[in-house]
Task: inverse folding
């Protein structure tokens, strides 16, 4: 059995989608039961060690909407029996059934920074577009519930994420000390991972840091933000930090390689995820595996991912989120208990188990689903990636 996986939404930078495809791809390869070929943007190799082939003309929502004939040609040429799509809109594909993976539904939420045009598409065109897929995969029960509300006729299966491949605690404290020297960081720190786009809600985290630092036991607390940073995003975080009076305690360290990220995570006093919405949150699993306390917003998929192994608080309430940060960084039996629960929660997720589940679903769909209608006209250029 051969499956084509659409990975053209990847731009070579770090993302949850890239981590998922890498983790699943390695697990598929290790199982050796399904041949998986990833179609990627020409000139990129975003999934090292996996089979990747270039595919043109499917990098934007508008081009994806018109890519049905190209996918049909690729499926026919490869002999693949199924297309695993990774972003919306779903093109009209006639040569094989399509299984779509949806990471989250933030494009329906005005508070997440989604454009008005994309929200309009989500309200009026999402359901019929989803119905082009033979099956939809959600990365969490929360996303699955949202999909069932939007498109109740579409079958949905949850295939969860797991931790970042190759991310292991450092063997010695030397790497942590080296990072602190480079960052000029001589204090305890909260760690946030991810680009400071609107739905990540990092402005509120800055405010929560300020609230925590107003407590006597929080005066030595700083914030480290790791992830892709556009200049405008970095400037916005800087302005928020100045306004809150914590500018000198905030470090924006950009994209980190796996070894450095391991050291930064292991040295953190708490991982904070204040997102307005999340489809899963792989960094939560990574932190729990490392024994790092976790504080997240109490929305979306985060409570399920945390699984009782962390602190939940309203990210819209800086005082409440700051209090949760302080609880998480304060040594004692309660912190130890929650960290142990976090380790157990992280053990629920496995790329190997997810790959096995996904392969079973692919076989079922390939054996029973009818291909999409033989038409390649689409009018969904305003849609959003998943």
Result:
């Amino acid at each position: 059995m051969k499956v084509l996986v659409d990975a053209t939404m990847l731009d070579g930078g770090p993302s949850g989608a890239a981590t998922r495809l890498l983790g699943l791809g390695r697990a598929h390869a290790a199982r050796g039961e399904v041949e998986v070929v990833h179609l990627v943007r020409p000139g990129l190799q975003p999934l090292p060690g996996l089979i990747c082939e270039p595919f043109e003309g499917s990098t934007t929502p508008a081009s994806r909407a018109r890519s049905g004939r190209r996918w049909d040609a690729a499926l026919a040429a490869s002999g693949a029996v199924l297309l695993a799509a990774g972003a919306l809109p779903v093109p009209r594909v006639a040569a094989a059934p399509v299984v779509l993976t949806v990471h989250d539904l933030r494009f329906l939420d005005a508070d997440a920074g989604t454009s008005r045009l994309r929200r309009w598409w989500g309200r009026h065109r999402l359901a019929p577009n989803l119905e082009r897929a033979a099956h939809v995969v959600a990365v969490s029960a929360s996303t699955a519930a949202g999909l069932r509300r939007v498109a109740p006729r579409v079958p949905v299966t949850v295939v969860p994420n797991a931790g970042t491949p190759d991310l292991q605690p450092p063997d010695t404290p030397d790497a942590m000390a080296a990072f602190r020297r480079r960052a000029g960081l001589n204090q305890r720190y909260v760690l946030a991972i991810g680009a400071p786009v609107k739905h990540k809600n990092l402005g509120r985290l800055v405010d929560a840091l300020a609230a925590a630092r107003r407590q006597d036991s929080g005066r030595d607390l700083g914030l480290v933000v790791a992830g892709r940073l556009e200049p405008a995003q970095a400037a916005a975080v800087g302005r928020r930090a100045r306004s809150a009076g914590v500018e000198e305690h905030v470090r924006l360290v950009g994209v980190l390689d796996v070894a450095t990220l391991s050291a930064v995570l292991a040295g953190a006093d708490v991982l904070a995820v204040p997102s307005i919405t999340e489809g899963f949150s792989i960094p939560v699993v990574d932190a729990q595996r490392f024994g790092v306390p976790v504080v997240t917003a109490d929305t979306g998929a985060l409570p399920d991912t945390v699984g009782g192994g962390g602190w939940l608080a309203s990210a819209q309430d800086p005082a409440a989120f700051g209090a949760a940060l302080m609880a998480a960084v304060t040594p004692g039996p309660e912190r130890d208990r929650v960290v142990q629960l976090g380790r157990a929660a992280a053990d629920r997720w496995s790329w190997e188990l997810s790959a096995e589940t996904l392969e079973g679903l692919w076989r079922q769909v390939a054996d029973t689903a009818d291909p999409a209608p033989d038409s390649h006209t689409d009018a969904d250029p305003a849609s959003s990636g998943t």
Remarks:
- Confidence is low (pLDDT under 50) at residues 371-386.
